[in-house]
Amino acid sequence: MRTINRIFLHTAAHGTATQNYDTTVQQIDAWHRERGWSGIGYHFVIRLDGTVNAGRSEDKAGAHVAGFNTGTMGICMSGHGDHHPWTAAQNAALMDLLVSLLKKYGLWPSLIAEAQKSDDALRVKLANVVLGHREVNRITNNPQYKTTKSCPGNRINMDSIRATLGQRVKAEANPAPQPPAAEVYDEATAQALFTHIRGLYTLASGMKWSDAMLDALGSIRKDARVDFLITEYKKKHGIP
Ligand SMILES: [Zn+2]
Predict the structure, then answer these.
(1) Do 169 and 81 lie in a common domain?
(2) CA torsion, ordered 1, 92, 43, 20, to nearest 10 deg
(3) Shared-domain flag, residues 57 and 160
């Protein structure tokens, strides 16, 4: 298995303002062979209906981002991202594919770790792991590798794609809170509470405490943890 540290997203740039084409692997393969490449340069193509087709073998370096084909994976979305946003089915399939690739290539745990630090830490990490082709300009100062392409398209907002992906990471980083653990009975604490609170009630009646003070004492007595311990203590010791 290759070592992967980044995934790049692309558009097939296939279509017009009025027509979005459901570009196939075979079409892209033919275009790339015309350029003299060994075949399709992307590892996956996601069709308009969300079908994920395999392109170049994952085990082989792609041909999709000049200067960054080593250690990266290329996903191409059918259609034309300058004219049409990705379909809901494409977006959903992309999220599933990204999650599965990030897990398969061992990048998921570091994303979980960043998510556990802060939303900002996760955002920064994701921006360095999942990029649109045009965003290569963020990570290189080499003019040879800078691009003027809009790929994956002017209609594609990479920050919002990463935010959606970030929600998937966070869902696993912060699992739903567990119900509170069952109360644990502690004899020493229970006895101290029982003795002292009973003592205060005895004092209260002798000293004729004000309603406000009695209310304060009552709110302590009714606290869930206090009530649990006193109730258990009375049961254990047969106190009515
Ligand atoms: Zn591209």
Answers:
(1) yes
(2) 180
(3) yes
The b/e string for 219-233 (b: 16+ C-beta within 10 A; e otherwise) is eeeeeeebeebbebb
The amino acid present at 73, given as its one-letter code, is M
Distance 10 CA to ligand 1 centre (A): 4
Of how many residues is the chain composed?
Answer: 240
Compute CA distances 30 → 3, 26, 57, whole Å: 28, 6, 16
Domain count, the chain: 2
Instruction: State how far the Cα of 58 lies from the Cα of 38, in Å rounded to an integer.
Output: 14
Identify the pLDDT of residue 179: 67
- Name the residue range of residue 221's domain: 187-236
Q: What is the mean pLDDT of the chain?
A: 94
Grouping H, G, I as helix, E, B as strand and the rest as coil, residue 5 is coil
> What's the 158 CA to ligand 1 centre distance in angstroms?
13
CA–centroid distance, 138 to ligand 1, in Å, is 15
Alpha carbon of 38 to ligand 1 centroid (Å): 17
Confidence band of 16 (pLDDT split at 50, 70, 90):
very high
142, part of any domain: yes
Residues 162 and 206 in one domain: no
Q: Is 181 part of a structural domain of the chain?
A: no
Question: Using an 8 Å Cβ cutoff, are 11 and 84 in contact?
Answer: no
* Distance of CA 133 from the midpoint of ligand 1 (Å): 5
CB atoms within 10 A of CB 171: 11
The two tokens of residue 167 are 């929600």
Q: How many angstroms does the Cα of residue 39 sit away from the middle of ligand 1?
A: 15
